[in-house]
Amino acid sequence: MTLIIENHPFSKLARQIDNLLWASVILSTAVSALSLMNMGRLSLFMGPITFLFTLTHNFILLRLTFLNRRRAKIIGVESINTSLNKSLPPTATKGNIISLWILIALWCLVVCVIIVVSVIIEAGNSFESWERLAGFVELPTVVAEVALLVTIALKCRKQKKSSIVQPERVDWEHYGTNQPHGA
Predict the structure, then answer these.
(1) Dist CA 18 CA 41 (whole Å)
(2) Are 135 and 38 in contact (CB under 8 A)?
(3) Cβ–Cβ < 8 Å for 167, 7
(4) Is-contact 89 16, C-beta < 8 A?
(5) What is the mean pLDDT of residues 130-140?
(6) CA distance 178 to 55
(7) Global pTM value
(8) Rounded to the nearest 10 degrees, how much is the dihedral formed by the CA atoms of 92, 98, 101, 102?
(9) Counting Cβ atoms within 10 Å, is residue 132 exposed (0-12), middle (13-18) or buried (19+)?
(10) Which of 48, 73, 79, 138 would bridge 34 by S-S if both were Cys, CB 3.0 to 4.6 A apart?
């Protein structure tokens, strides 16, 4: 019987979420840099402010998952069963998932502000050509950040739903290998 163990700090899904968090750090930094190229006028400085919230959220989660992995390495495989009993990884907590959806809403608001301000400014023709180019690049990167955060939120929800509350049933010595228990 194959069990899905998503509260284990070294599971495939936990590593995917970590990689996506790092991708979000990089992408949101790019969004903030693009926004600051035109002095934040297109997003009315909402892009850089939302970037700070996103960066804070992602670094807190990455730090908590790092500490969770370090704790798992210290206690070893033998006692990890009792350590994981009735616990969730930091990325699978309700607070994290709610925070992600709040960040997604904020980034969606940034998308709407960029569109509205772009239309207003385009009508007044008050941007130089390089600032327009930065705006045309900023909008798709913000949309990509929204898509990335939605992906992270869905994976965190999947991790929460598939976490085992009773890890004592798991054969940790053979976890992650393709070999059956007796091989």
Answers:
(1) 32
(2) yes
(3) yes
(4) no
(5) 77
(6) 37
(7) 0.77
(8) -140
(9) middle
(10) 138
User: Is there a contact between 107 and 43 (Cβ–Cβ < 8 Å)?
Assistant: no
Torsion angle defined by CA atoms of residues 90, 92, 96 and 100, in that order, rounded to the nearest 10 degrees = 130
Report the mean per-residue pLDDT for the chain.
79
Reading the block at residue 56, the tokens are: 């804070």
Q: Which of 29, 16, 109 is nearest to 65 (CA)?
A: 16
Question: Which amino acid does the sequence have at 35?
Answer: S
Q: Which two tokens stand for residue 30?
A: 């790019």
